[in-house]
Amino acid sequence: MKRLCYFVNSDWYFDLHWTERAIAARDAGYEIHIISHFIGEEIIKKFKTLGFICHNVSLVAQSFNMIVFFRAFLNARKII
Asked: Which terms does the record give in the GO molecular function aspect (predicted)?
């Protein structure tokens, strides 16, 4: 199965604007992975119900700290 990974800094933004695209990709045969800093369990439950695989990383949405971002990126690479 082909894998599609979304690396996003905001779980709620992905939910509002990218979920439909992820569903279409899932329906086209992709395994969907979402790498983000998930704030609450509700959104993780929603994504898991849709068949997405969620990976929680320590990333702050409004942070411009490149070290924190790079560390999160390296952790994400280990996942995929």
From this structure: transferase activity
